[in-house]
Amino acid sequence: MQTITVDLKDRAYPIHIAPEGWEALPGALDGAIKGEKVMVVCDENTHRLYYEAVKTVLESGGYTVNPAVIPPGEASKSFEQAQALYTKALEANLDRSSTIVALGGGVVGDLAGFIAATYMRGIGFIQIPTSLLAQVDSSVGGKVAINHPLAKNIIGAFYQPRMVFINPHTLKTLPQREFATGMAELIKHAFIADSEFLSWLEQNMEALLSRDVQALTHALYRSCSIKARVVEQDEKESGLRMILNFGHTIGHAIESATGYSKYTHGETVAIGMVYESKIAVHRGLIGHEYVERLSSLLEKAGLPTRLEAADWDLIIERMAYDKKNVDSRIVFVLPTGYGKVEVFKDVATDDIKQVLADRQNT
Questions:
Q1: Burial class (CB in 10 A: 0-12, 13-18, 19+), 256
Q2: What is the β-pairing status of strands 151-158 and 143-148?
Q3: Average pLDDT estimate for 216-245
Q4: Catalytic residue among 178, 235, 237, 267
Q5: Which residue range is the domain that position 257 belongs to?
Q6: Do 40 and 164 belong together in one domain?
Q7: Which end of the chain is more exposed for a tag (fewer CB within 10 A), N or C?
Q8: Is the per-residue pLDDT at 12 higher than 70?
Protein backbone atom coordinates (compact mmCIF):
# COMPACT_ATOMS: atom_id res chain seq x y z
CA MET A 1 0.00 0.00 0.00
CA GLN A 2 1.31 3.44 -0.98
CA THR A 3 0.33 6.48 1.05
CA ILE A 4 0.22 10.18 0.21
CA THR A 5 -0.37 12.61 3.08
CA VAL A 6 -2.42 15.72 2.36
CA ASP A 7 -0.72 18.08 4.79
CA LEU A 8 -3.39 20.44 6.09
CA LYS A 9 -1.89 20.74 9.59
CA ASP A 10 -4.46 19.62 12.17
CA ARG A 11 -6.72 18.33 9.37
CA ALA A 12 -4.07 16.32 7.54
CA TYR A 13 -5.22 12.98 6.15
CA PRO A 14 -3.80 10.04 4.20
CA ILE A 15 -4.63 8.84 0.71
CA HIS A 16 -3.97 5.09 0.65
CA ILE A 17 -3.50 3.46 -2.77
CA ALA A 18 -3.73 -0.30 -2.28
CA PRO A 19 -2.93 -2.65 -5.17
CA GLU A 20 -3.47 -5.42 -2.57
CA GLY A 21 -7.19 -4.65 -2.71
CA TRP A 22 -9.70 -4.86 0.13
CA GLU A 23 -7.31 -6.81 2.38
CA ALA A 24 -5.50 -3.52 3.04
CA LEU A 25 -8.67 -1.72 4.19
CA PRO A 26 -8.56 -2.73 7.90
CA GLY A 27 -5.11 -1.17 8.31
CA ALA A 28 -6.16 1.95 6.42
CA LEU A 29 -9.21 2.40 8.67
CA ASP A 30 -7.13 2.34 11.84
CA GLY A 31 -7.87 5.57 13.71
CA ALA A 32 -10.05 7.02 10.94
CA ILE A 33 -13.40 6.27 12.60
CA LYS A 34 -14.12 7.77 16.02
CA GLY A 35 -17.59 6.55 17.04
CA GLU A 36 -19.43 3.25 16.67
CA LYS A 37 -22.03 4.09 14.00
CA VAL A 38 -21.24 4.24 10.29
CA MET A 39 -23.50 5.03 7.34
CA VAL A 40 -22.18 3.76 4.02
CA VAL A 41 -23.52 5.80 1.10
CA CYS A 42 -23.36 4.02 -2.25
CA ASP A 43 -25.32 3.90 -5.46
CA GLU A 44 -27.15 0.82 -6.72
CA ASN A 45 -24.14 -0.36 -8.72
CA THR A 46 -21.48 0.00 -6.02
CA HIS A 47 -23.86 -1.48 -3.46
CA ARG A 48 -24.09 -4.62 -5.58
CA LEU A 49 -20.36 -4.82 -6.28
CA TYR A 50 -18.55 -3.66 -3.15
CA TYR A 51 -20.87 -3.01 -0.21
CA GLU A 52 -20.62 -6.50 1.33
CA ALA A 53 -16.80 -6.44 1.24
CA VAL A 54 -16.65 -3.06 2.98
CA LYS A 55 -19.44 -3.96 5.41
CA THR A 56 -17.56 -7.11 6.44
CA VAL A 57 -14.41 -5.12 7.20
CA LEU A 58 -16.33 -2.50 9.17
CA GLU A 59 -18.33 -5.01 11.19
CA SER A 60 -15.19 -6.99 11.98
CA GLY A 61 -13.87 -3.75 13.47
CA GLY A 62 -16.87 -3.53 15.78
CA TYR A 63 -18.83 -0.85 13.94
CA THR A 64 -22.59 -0.74 13.40
CA VAL A 65 -23.11 -0.34 9.65
CA ASN A 66 -26.12 1.27 7.97
CA PRO A 67 -26.46 1.30 4.15
CA ALA A 68 -27.88 4.26 2.23
CA VAL A 69 -28.38 3.49 -1.45
CA ILE A 70 -29.03 6.17 -4.07
CA PRO A 71 -29.79 5.94 -7.81
CA PRO A 72 -26.67 6.13 -10.01
CA GLY A 73 -25.97 9.24 -12.05
CA GLU A 74 -25.42 12.99 -11.76
CA ALA A 75 -29.13 13.60 -11.15
CA SER A 76 -28.67 12.22 -7.62
CA LYS A 77 -26.64 15.27 -6.60
CA SER A 78 -29.90 17.04 -5.75
CA PHE A 79 -31.86 18.61 -2.90
CA GLU A 80 -34.21 15.63 -3.01
CA GLN A 81 -31.50 13.01 -2.54
CA ALA A 82 -29.81 15.12 0.15
CA GLN A 83 -33.10 15.25 2.05
CA ALA A 84 -33.47 11.47 1.76
CA LEU A 85 -29.98 10.94 3.18
CA TYR A 86 -30.61 13.30 6.11
CA THR A 87 -33.66 11.16 6.87
CA LYS A 88 -31.58 7.97 6.64
CA ALA A 89 -29.01 9.45 9.03
CA LEU A 90 -31.69 10.38 11.54
CA GLU A 91 -33.34 6.97 11.28
CA ALA A 92 -29.94 5.34 11.93
CA ASN A 93 -29.51 7.59 15.00
CA LEU A 94 -26.23 8.98 13.73
CA ASP A 95 -24.71 11.45 16.20
CA ARG A 96 -21.74 13.80 16.17
CA SER A 97 -19.32 10.92 16.76
CA SER A 98 -20.63 8.96 13.77
CA THR A 99 -18.99 8.60 10.36
CA ILE A 100 -20.29 8.66 6.80
CA VAL A 101 -18.41 6.51 4.30
CA ALA A 102 -18.72 7.36 0.61
CA LEU A 103 -18.40 4.14 -1.39
CA GLY A 104 -18.66 4.91 -5.08
CA GLY A 105 -17.85 7.42 -7.77
CA GLY A 106 -17.78 11.19 -7.77
CA VAL A 107 -21.54 11.61 -7.42
CA VAL A 108 -21.60 9.44 -4.30
CA GLY A 109 -18.56 11.18 -2.84
CA ASP A 110 -19.82 14.70 -3.48
CA LEU A 111 -23.30 13.97 -2.12
CA ALA A 112 -22.17 11.91 0.90
CA GLY A 113 -19.56 14.55 1.72
CA PHE A 114 -22.16 17.30 1.54
CA ILE A 115 -24.31 15.36 4.01
CA ALA A 116 -21.31 14.75 6.31
CA ALA A 117 -20.41 18.45 6.21
CA THR A 118 -23.91 19.64 7.10
CA TYR A 119 -25.49 16.92 9.26
CA MET A 120 -25.24 18.12 12.88
CA ARG A 121 -22.86 20.80 11.51
CA GLY A 122 -20.31 18.19 10.50
CA ILE A 123 -19.52 14.55 11.30
CA GLY A 124 -16.78 12.12 10.30
CA PHE A 125 -16.24 11.44 6.61
CA ILE A 126 -14.26 8.76 4.74
CA GLN A 127 -13.86 8.40 0.98
CA ILE A 128 -13.61 4.99 -0.70
CA PRO A 129 -13.77 6.02 -4.38
CA THR A 130 -14.43 3.23 -6.86
CA SER A 131 -14.31 5.11 -10.20
CA LEU A 132 -11.19 6.53 -11.81
CA LEU A 133 -12.73 10.01 -11.85
CA ALA A 134 -13.33 9.90 -8.12
CA GLN A 135 -9.95 8.34 -7.35
CA VAL A 136 -7.88 11.00 -9.10
CA ASP A 137 -10.12 14.01 -8.60
CA SER A 138 -13.25 14.34 -6.53
CA SER A 139 -12.17 12.25 -3.51
CA VAL A 140 -9.08 14.40 -2.95
CA GLY A 141 -9.26 17.96 -1.68
CA GLY A 142 -12.49 18.19 0.30
CA LYS A 143 -14.86 19.67 -2.27
CA VAL A 144 -18.38 18.42 -1.56
CA ALA A 145 -21.51 19.63 -3.29
CA ILE A 146 -24.89 19.19 -4.90
CA ASN A 147 -26.09 20.70 -8.16
CA HIS A 148 -28.60 23.41 -8.99
CA PRO A 149 -30.48 23.14 -12.29
CA LEU A 150 -28.60 26.20 -13.54
CA ALA A 151 -25.11 25.35 -12.32
CA LYS A 152 -23.03 22.33 -11.35
CA ASN A 153 -21.60 22.04 -7.81
CA ILE A 154 -22.84 25.51 -6.91
CA ILE A 155 -24.15 24.47 -3.46
CA GLY A 156 -21.43 22.95 -1.33
CA ALA A 157 -18.54 23.28 1.08
CA PHE A 158 -14.89 22.47 1.63
CA TYR A 159 -14.94 19.50 3.99
CA GLN A 160 -11.92 17.25 4.21
CA PRO A 161 -12.24 13.49 4.71
CA ARG A 162 -10.40 11.72 7.50
CA MET A 163 -9.02 9.20 5.03
CA VAL A 164 -9.17 8.20 1.37
CA PHE A 165 -8.80 4.52 0.42
CA ILE A 166 -8.24 3.64 -3.24
CA ASN A 167 -8.52 0.06 -4.45
CA PRO A 168 -7.30 0.02 -8.08
CA HIS A 169 -9.01 -3.34 -8.65
CA THR A 170 -12.41 -1.61 -8.66
CA LEU A 171 -11.43 -0.09 -12.00
CA LYS A 172 -11.61 -3.53 -13.63
CA THR A 173 -15.41 -3.51 -13.33
CA LEU A 174 -15.79 0.06 -14.57
CA PRO A 175 -17.52 0.44 -17.96
CA GLN A 176 -15.19 1.80 -20.64
CA ARG A 177 -17.00 5.13 -20.87
CA GLU A 178 -16.68 5.69 -17.12
CA PHE A 179 -13.01 4.72 -17.18
CA ALA A 180 -12.41 7.22 -19.98
CA THR A 181 -14.14 9.99 -18.05
CA GLY A 182 -11.61 9.54 -15.24
CA MET A 183 -8.75 9.57 -17.72
CA ALA A 184 -9.73 13.14 -18.62
CA GLU A 185 -8.90 14.40 -15.13
CA LEU A 186 -5.75 12.29 -14.93
CA ILE A 187 -4.55 13.68 -18.26
CA LYS A 188 -5.47 17.17 -17.07
CA HIS A 189 -3.15 16.84 -14.06
CA ALA A 190 -0.24 15.96 -16.34
CA PHE A 191 -0.87 18.90 -18.69
CA ILE A 192 -1.20 21.45 -15.89
CA ALA A 193 1.64 20.37 -13.62
CA ASP A 194 3.93 17.53 -14.74
CA SER A 195 5.36 17.28 -18.26
CA GLU A 196 7.29 14.11 -17.32
CA PHE A 197 4.04 12.42 -16.26
CA LEU A 198 2.57 13.54 -19.58
CA SER A 199 5.29 11.68 -21.46
CA TRP A 200 4.76 8.61 -19.23
CA LEU A 201 1.04 8.63 -20.07
CA GLU A 202 1.78 8.75 -23.78
CA GLN A 203 4.11 5.76 -23.43
CA ASN A 204 1.84 3.71 -21.13
CA MET A 205 -1.67 4.43 -22.39
CA GLU A 206 -2.11 0.86 -23.67
CA ALA A 207 -1.31 -0.61 -20.23
CA LEU A 208 -3.71 1.79 -18.55
CA LEU A 209 -6.53 1.00 -20.96
CA SER A 210 -6.00 -2.73 -20.33
CA ARG A 211 -6.47 -1.96 -16.58
CA ASP A 212 -3.01 -3.19 -15.63
CA VAL A 213 -2.93 -2.77 -11.83
CA GLN A 214 0.75 -1.85 -11.69
CA ALA A 215 0.34 0.88 -14.30
CA LEU A 216 -2.87 2.10 -12.68
CA THR A 217 -1.23 2.28 -9.27
CA HIS A 218 1.61 4.39 -10.63
CA ALA A 219 -0.76 6.73 -12.49
CA LEU A 220 -3.03 7.07 -9.45
CA TYR A 221 -0.07 7.90 -7.22
CA ARG A 222 1.32 10.54 -9.60
CA SER A 223 -2.07 12.11 -10.24
CA CYS A 224 -3.16 12.19 -6.59
CA SER A 225 0.23 13.61 -5.59
CA ILE A 226 -0.23 16.51 -8.00
CA LYS A 227 -3.65 17.35 -6.62
CA ALA A 228 -2.57 16.89 -3.00
CA ARG A 229 0.31 19.34 -3.39
CA VAL A 230 -2.01 21.94 -4.92
CA VAL A 231 -4.64 21.48 -2.20
CA GLU A 232 -1.99 21.85 0.53
CA GLN A 233 -1.05 25.26 -0.82
CA ASP A 234 -4.60 26.49 -1.48
CA GLU A 235 -7.27 24.47 0.28
CA LYS A 236 -10.23 26.73 -0.49
CA GLU A 237 -9.43 27.79 -4.05
CA SER A 238 -8.45 31.38 -3.32
CA GLY A 239 -5.63 31.26 -5.84
CA LEU A 240 -3.41 28.36 -6.94
CA ARG A 241 -6.09 25.67 -6.68
CA MET A 242 -7.95 27.30 -9.54
CA ILE A 243 -5.41 25.74 -11.91
CA LEU A 244 -7.22 22.43 -11.36
CA ASN A 245 -10.13 23.92 -13.31
CA PHE A 246 -8.41 23.71 -16.70
CA GLY A 247 -11.16 22.62 -19.10
CA HIS A 248 -13.88 23.18 -16.53
CA THR A 249 -15.18 26.64 -17.48
CA ILE A 250 -16.41 25.36 -20.83
CA GLY A 251 -16.87 21.80 -19.55
CA HIS A 252 -19.24 22.68 -16.71
CA ALA A 253 -21.19 24.99 -19.01
CA ILE A 254 -21.65 22.16 -21.53
CA GLU A 255 -22.87 19.87 -18.74
CA SER A 256 -25.36 22.46 -17.52
CA ALA A 257 -26.57 23.39 -21.02
CA THR A 258 -27.20 19.73 -21.85
CA GLY A 259 -29.00 18.93 -18.59
CA TYR A 260 -26.17 16.86 -17.07
CA SER A 261 -27.35 13.92 -19.15
CA LYS A 262 -25.76 13.92 -22.61
CA TYR A 263 -22.10 13.81 -21.61
CA THR A 264 -20.11 12.52 -18.65
CA HIS A 265 -18.10 15.01 -16.60
CA GLY A 266 -14.83 13.79 -18.06
CA GLU A 267 -16.12 14.05 -21.60
CA THR A 268 -17.04 17.70 -21.11
CA VAL A 269 -13.69 18.41 -19.40
CA ALA A 270 -11.88 16.81 -22.35
CA ILE A 271 -13.83 18.96 -24.81
CA GLY A 272 -13.33 21.98 -22.54
CA MET A 273 -9.56 21.50 -22.39
CA VAL A 274 -9.33 21.39 -26.18
CA TYR A 275 -11.44 24.51 -26.71
CA GLU A 276 -9.75 26.39 -23.89
CA SER A 277 -6.38 25.46 -25.41
CA LYS A 278 -7.62 26.94 -28.69
CA ILE A 279 -8.45 30.15 -26.82
CA ALA A 280 -4.85 30.07 -25.54
CA VAL A 281 -3.60 29.66 -29.12
CA HIS A 282 -5.81 32.59 -30.17
CA ARG A 283 -4.14 34.71 -27.45
CA GLY A 284 -0.64 33.62 -28.51
CA LEU A 285 0.08 31.71 -25.29
CA ILE A 286 0.84 28.34 -26.92
CA GLY A 287 1.22 26.87 -30.38
CA HIS A 288 -1.10 24.60 -32.37
CA GLU A 289 1.09 21.58 -31.57
CA TYR A 290 -0.09 21.76 -27.94
CA VAL A 291 -3.71 21.32 -29.05
CA GLU A 292 -2.72 18.47 -31.35
CA ARG A 293 -0.80 16.63 -28.59
CA LEU A 294 -3.65 17.13 -26.11
CA SER A 295 -6.29 16.00 -28.61
CA SER A 296 -4.25 12.94 -29.60
CA LEU A 297 -3.86 11.73 -26.01
CA LEU A 298 -7.52 12.35 -25.18
CA GLU A 299 -8.64 10.44 -28.27
CA LYS A 300 -6.36 7.51 -27.38
CA ALA A 301 -8.07 7.44 -23.98
CA GLY A 302 -11.45 7.19 -25.71
CA LEU A 303 -12.59 10.76 -25.11
CA PRO A 304 -14.30 13.29 -27.40
CA THR A 305 -12.40 16.42 -28.37
CA ARG A 306 -15.12 18.47 -30.09
CA LEU A 307 -18.84 19.16 -30.15
CA GLU A 308 -20.40 18.20 -33.46
CA ALA A 309 -23.35 20.52 -32.88
CA ALA A 310 -23.89 22.92 -30.03
CA ASP A 311 -25.90 25.90 -28.86
CA TRP A 312 -22.83 27.99 -28.10
CA ASP A 313 -24.89 31.01 -27.05
CA LEU A 314 -26.50 28.91 -24.31
CA ILE A 315 -23.15 27.45 -23.31
CA ILE A 316 -21.62 30.92 -23.00
CA GLU A 317 -24.67 32.02 -21.03
CA ARG A 318 -24.12 29.14 -18.60
CA MET A 319 -20.46 30.13 -18.21
CA ALA A 320 -21.77 33.26 -16.48
CA TYR A 321 -22.90 31.07 -13.56
CA ASP A 322 -19.46 29.48 -13.03
CA LYS A 323 -18.38 29.67 -9.40
CA LYS A 324 -14.86 30.80 -10.39
CA ASN A 325 -16.18 34.02 -11.90
CA VAL A 326 -15.17 37.35 -10.37
CA ASP A 327 -17.18 40.58 -10.71
CA SER A 328 -19.25 39.10 -13.53
CA ARG A 329 -16.11 38.26 -15.52
CA ILE A 330 -15.73 34.72 -16.86
CA VAL A 331 -12.55 33.20 -15.47
CA PHE A 332 -10.47 30.78 -17.54
CA VAL A 333 -7.50 28.58 -16.71
CA LEU A 334 -5.42 28.59 -19.89
CA PRO A 335 -2.22 26.69 -20.76
CA THR A 336 0.98 28.64 -21.22
CA GLY A 337 3.20 25.61 -21.88
CA TYR A 338 3.51 21.91 -21.03
CA GLY A 339 2.95 21.48 -17.30
CA LYS A 340 2.01 25.16 -16.98
CA VAL A 341 -1.29 27.04 -16.78
CA GLU A 342 -2.37 30.48 -15.58
CA VAL A 343 -5.65 32.06 -14.51
CA PHE A 344 -7.10 34.70 -16.85
CA LYS A 345 -9.94 37.08 -16.01
CA ASP A 346 -9.79 39.21 -19.16
CA VAL A 347 -10.97 36.87 -21.92
CA ALA A 348 -13.48 38.84 -23.97
CA THR A 349 -16.80 37.19 -24.82
CA ASP A 350 -16.25 38.02 -28.50
CA ASP A 351 -12.95 36.10 -28.41
CA ILE A 352 -14.69 33.12 -26.81
CA LYS A 353 -17.39 33.17 -29.49
CA GLN A 354 -14.84 33.50 -32.27
CA VAL A 355 -12.93 30.40 -31.12
CA LEU A 356 -16.05 28.35 -30.38
CA ALA A 357 -17.79 29.28 -33.61
CA ASP A 358 -14.74 28.65 -35.81
CA ARG A 359 -15.81 25.99 -38.33
CA GLN A 360 -12.40 24.29 -37.88
CA ASN A 361 -13.29 23.62 -34.24
CA THR A 362 -16.49 21.77 -35.03
A1: buried
A2: antiparallel
A3: 90
A4: 237
A5: 176-361
A6: yes
A7: C
A8: yes
